[in-house]
């Protein structure tokens, strides 16, 4: 007698089959993003890649549990919404990444904050909190001199949430597609009648 876990294992096998043509792109994306420097600088790259893989797995479990793949309109809606979310979140992420992440030459990347310290306000009142490289150089790229610790932390968390949100949306799209296709009953080809 087949159980829900047997069905889930079949679903994972189907995901693996789809992964053969999807994951060379989607699964490697966090690694490639890390290599080209598009991943959030906090936390470190390896823990973030592991956390991203975990988020994707839990998303696939949730899609399997909560989405009945036989209802095509529901699946279509889930795929459409997840694609829109993936695009919107990734555009927002890249915009914030461009504004908040800075990597000095010969240095490691850091995240800027949203709120300037009193010292920074005295020095750079007109441009706070969007300070440029020249202003960063005046404090030897010490971000805590220019931005409050709370605002730096909030910026870091926001970047990580958007990073994970992009992969949640992509995993939802892939999981909904596989769940639907795995449950879909194909009609046998119609017998051809001789003319």
Instruction: Give the strand order, joined by hyphens, for the main sheet.
Output: 1-2
What is the beta-strand fraction? under 5%
The stretches of 5 or more residues where confidence is low (pLDDT under 50) are none
Kindly report how far apart the N and C termini lie: 46 Å
Report the major sheet: 2 strands, antiparallel
Question: How many strand elements?
Answer: 2
* Number of structural units classed as domains: 1
The helix/strand order is: HHHHEEHHHH
Mean model confidence by pLDDT: 81
What's the helical proportion of residues?
55-70%
What structural category arises from helix and sheet content? mainly alpha
Radius of gyration: 23 Å
Contiguous helical run count: 8
What's the multimeric state?
single chain
- Outline type: elongated
Describe the structure.
There is one protein chain. This protein has 195 residues and is mostly helical. The protein has one domain (4-113, 148-183). Helix content is 68%, strand content 2%. It is built from eight helices and two strands. The chain has helices spanning 4-26, 29-35, 45-66, 72-100, 118-124, 133-137, 143-146, 149-183, and strands at residues 101-102, 110-111. Strand 1 and strand 2 (110-111) form a beta hairpin. The longest helix is centred in the last third of the chain and has 35 residues, at 149-183. The termini are far apart. The mean pLDDT is 81.
List keywords for this structure.
mainly alpha, two-stranded antiparallel sheet, 8 helices, 195 residues
């Amino acid at each position: 007698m087949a159980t829900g876990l047997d069905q889930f294992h079949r679903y994972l096998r189907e995901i693996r089959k789809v992964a053969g043509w999807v994951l060379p792109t989607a699964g490697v994306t966090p690694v490639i993003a890390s290599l080209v420097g598009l991943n959030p600088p906090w936390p470190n790259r390896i823990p973030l890649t592991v956390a991203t893989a975990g988020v994707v797995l839990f998303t696939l479990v949730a899609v399997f549990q909560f989405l009945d793949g036989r209802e095509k309109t529901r699946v279509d809606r889930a795929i459409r919404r997840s694609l829109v979310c993936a695009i919107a979140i990734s555009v927002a992420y890249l915009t914030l990444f461009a504004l908040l992440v800075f990597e000095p030459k010969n240095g490691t990347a850091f995240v800027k904050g949203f709120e300037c310290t009193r010292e920074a306000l005295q020095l750079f009142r007109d441009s706070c909190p969007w300070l440029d490289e020249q202003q960063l150089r005046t404090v030897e790229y010490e971000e805590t001199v220019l931005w409050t610790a709370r605002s730096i932390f909030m910026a870091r968390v926001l970047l990580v949430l958007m990073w994970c949100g992009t992969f949640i949306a992509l995993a939802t799209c892939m999981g909904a597609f596989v769940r639907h296709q795995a449950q879909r009953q194909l009609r046998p080809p119609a017998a051809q009648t001789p003319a």
